[in-house]
Amino acid sequence: MILTGPEITAAALDGRLRIDPFDADQVNPNSYNVRLGTTLATYTAPVIDAHRPNPTTVITIGGDGYVLQPGELYLGHTFEQIGSDHFVPLLFGRSSVGRLGLFVEITAPIGDIGFHGQWTLMLTPVRPLRVYPGMEIGQVMFFVATGAVDLYTGKYQGSLGPQPSRAWQDLISAQAAAS
């Protein structure tokens, strides 16, 4: 079951889910609009390696915005910190942003129960596109979970700002377990 707008508001006010800051004007019939934060990161190596940390460069989006270029992956973040120990969050781009040719979440829209923090956004434009801090870029929906819940305690817990991939940590963990 998906939470309706009024239930999202009630859950945000009684603590069953966290949206910080919460703004009632961003509540939709069955989702909550999230805004783009002030920071982007891009990978700087010519080849990204899933088994190693990859260097990034950080870009601050000023009041005049920043032009995203096709063929580049930009890691952005939500302005809001979002999380719940009760509901499963899913984040998607807003249709109005998709109509501008911007992919907001390429392959990872589902969040884990127990994650709390700013969400990293995977931004890829089809054409050059100017984005602005604070623009409504995505929407989060919340679903009721059934069954026993194991709260998320993973490597991205408490994230602030865009987070590069830490897939290489999984390899290290797997190698340690095999030893």
From TrEMBL:
Q: Does the keyword Hydrolase apply?
A: yes
Listed CDD domains: trimeric_dUTPase
Q: Name one GO molecular function term.
A: dCTP deaminase activity
One family from Pfam that matches here is DCD
UniProt-listed Gene3D superfamilies: 2.70.40.10
Tree of life domain:
Bacteria
Q: What EC class does the entry list? A: hydrolase
Key words of the record: Hydrolase, Nucleotide metabolism
Per the UniProt record, which EC number(s) apply here? 3.5.4.13
Q: Which InterPro entries match?
A: dCTP_deaminase (IPR011962), dUTPase-like_sf (IPR036157), dUTPase_trimeric (IPR033704)
What NCBIfam families does the annotation carry? dCTP_deam
> By its UniProt entry, which PANTHER family does this protein fall under?
DCTP DEAMINASE
Name by which UniProt lists this protein: dCTP deaminase
**What lineage does UniProt assign to this protein's organism?**
Bacteria, Bacillati, Actinomycetota, Actinomycetes, Kitasatosporales
